Amino acid sequence: MPDRDLEASFANYVGARRPALVRVAFLLCGDQHHAEDLVQSALIKAVAHWKRIGDDPEPWLRRVMVNDHISRWRRHRGRERLMDVVPDRAVPQHEEHAELAAALAHLAPKQRAVIVLRYYEDLTEAQTAQVLGVSVGTVKSQHSDALKRLRGVVPALVQTGG
Amino acid sequence: MDQMRTALRGLAETAVTAPADDPASLWSQGRRRVRRRRLAAAGAVAAAVVAAGASSLVAVPAAVVHPAGATHEPAIPRNVWEARDWYPTTSEEGPPGVVAVLGGVIRGDRNGLFTVSATTGEYRLLDLPAAAAETSLTGTEYALAPDGRHIAYWIAGRPGGVPVVRDGESATRVQIGVGIYDTDDGSVEWVEFRTAHGIDGSGLMWADDDHLLVTYGERADSGSDPGSMVSVDVGTELVTVADAARRRAITIPEGGAGLTADGALTALPSRRRAVTVPLDGTAPRTLARLPRMRAFAPSSAWTSSEAIMLPGNRLLGGRNNYGADQTMVGSLAPDGTVGALRKVRGIAFVQPVAWLDDRDLLVIGDGRSSDEWGALYRLDTSDGAVTPLGTAQAGMYAPGLQFATDLLGAPMVEGERPPTVDSRWLRGGGAVLALLGSCAAILLWRRRRA
After folding, report:
1. Helix, strand, or coil here: B189?
2. Whose CB among A53, A108, B412, B443 lies 3.0–4.6 Å from A60's, allowing a Cys bridge?
3. How far off is chain B from A83, nearest CA to CA, in Å?
4. Residue A31: inside a domain, yes or no?
């Protein structure tokens, strides 16, 4: 495919799917600006591989966003400090949403990614494992741990046996 | 888990999508990133290649075989080790300086010589110009001067022509004379014997630091003549033919000969007669008649030269005791009679090297254990007792080792073992591994950063 066609394909995809990518990224990180950064960075990286992934770029982009978010979390976790005043950030107005956002914040990035991929993106355990680059067993254990934590914070959302 | 799905979708909808960058801008940023990464990868690979190449290039000339490290007064090393064919050569590093030890080494598919420096202990391979191709490793075809400053060897070329220095003309090469290599400046003094068909060299021996004794036979249409003996004065190219010796077909026995105190050559042309051959050309005279005993016949492990070495009129010989070589020592009385012979105890295959004094002889021999094979011993010729001095583990070529005998008066120095693995290959291999590692790291980095 000529470069011009690749660029047109890329532009079409970005125009159509960027909001959906931002929503996934927002669920992964819980921060509006960080979500925008994740998506933009992933799309820029995708350019180099567009010839190969252009037909179905979503799995590749998901994987890059998850990995970038985990890498960023690892880089910055040692620098987080307790503060008296909560900095300004977008807070969901709806009470249920706010509860869920707070509950997700208690999860480790990989656990959070498992929840988002399994329940928002409706991926199977195998697909989730592929995105995260881990085994299915790891996905299962991360999923179980994540639900246990969420159950303690928002029990209404997490029904036993579900 | 429908509640979870619904809640997540509701939460996702709260994300406000900011105005997007122009897709064309994202595309151009992506293309710039691709170019940057390609440039960085190419630079990293180039740097790795340059580093690996440079390190191997720098390492190659620096093959380390300088075991002694510090320079010391000229001395004989107590330990001599087998040389390797990748050691530095005189073509690469220049002449070796004063040589303490000269020995044979297999260099690929041919035989060669190596030296051990008397002042640094460094091992070096000799690239001798026009050397005859069929150099033996047993010490019969080369000779180290007593002061360690000259090495005599047979040269090859076209009879009546000039020594052939270049390779590739071996078909027309025959022995034509002797080369005397100066270990200080690397020059070679050519002594060519004018013959129609070349010579068959049979013996090289230094009478002293400046006089080389040479015996050879002149090749004829059918075989060789009985032999000629000449004395070569180093530096003046004066060749004196010992006519008397020539007439009587006296030759330097295989492996050399001994010298009497007045400088005359002592040879043993037959198994039972020791003669002196004055170098002034006067007639040889019988020095001693050896006892008629089968036992004293030089066996395959012995040459007649080793049967008699005469400073102090001491006698050393091999006894073939029903196939088992045994070394005997004794002395010659002034009237030429041989006194009682005693066995040399504790070592076998005794190879005489040089006299340490009137009574003691430096020899290479095999002790009882394999660790003591090819070791240096002091042999007391009055009673056959031996004292270990060091090792001469030049492999199977230990019998061919020659020592700068002038240096035997000084205390021996330890000879540290030179490297047995070619450091150039180690470094080259390390450079290749570094290169492969760099490429793997770059590949991994690109995949992780994708």
Report:
1. strand
2. A53
3. 25
4. yes
> Computed from CA positions of residues B171, B106, B116, B264, in that sequence, does the dihedral angle turn out positive or negative?
negative
A5 CB neighbours in chain B (<8 A) are: none
CATH code, domain with A147: 1.10.10.10
Chain B residue with minimal CA distance to A96?
B7
Contact list, B10 vs chain A (CB under 8 Å): 94, 96-97, 100
Same domain flag for A42 and A112: no
Contacts of A15 in chain B (CB under 8 A): 23
**Total number of domains in chain A:** 2
CA angle B137–B138–B144, rounded 5-degree value: 85
Please judge whether A40 and B21 are an interchain contact, meaning their C-beta atoms are less than 8 angstroms apart. yes
In a domain, A87, yes or no: no
- In this prediction, the answer to ipTM > 0.90 reads no
Which residues of B fall below an 8 Å CB-CB distance to A? 1, 3-5, 7-18, 20-21, 23-24, 26-27, 29-31, 33-34, 37, 450
C-alpha to C-alpha distances, B305 to B94, B320, B344, B424, nearest whole angstrom: 34, 16, 18, 42
The answer for B104, left when phi > 0, alpha when psi is -120 to 50, beta otherwise, is beta
A67 and A105 both lie in a single domain: no
DSSP state string for B229-252:
EEEEETTTTEEEE-HHHHHTT--P
Tell me the two tokens of residue B85.
């064919």
The closest of B232, B255, B252, B231 to B243, measured between CA atoms, is B231
Q: Which residues of chain B have pLDDT under 50?
A: 60-68, 166, 168-169, 171, 244, 247, 249, 253-256, 292-307, 320-323
Q: What is the pLDDT of residues A110-157, one digit of tens each?
A: 999 999 999 999 999 999 998 888 899 999 999 999 988 888 887 777
| A137 part of a folded domain | yes
Query: What average pLDDT score do residues A7-22 get?
Result: 91
Residues of chain B with Cβ-Cβ distance to A27 below 8 Å are: 8, 11-12, 15
Q: Is residue A102 part of a domain?
A: yes
- Residue B263 tokens read as 């400088």
Are residues A1 and A34 both part of a single domain?
Answer: yes
A49 to chain B: which residues are within 8 Å by CB? 450
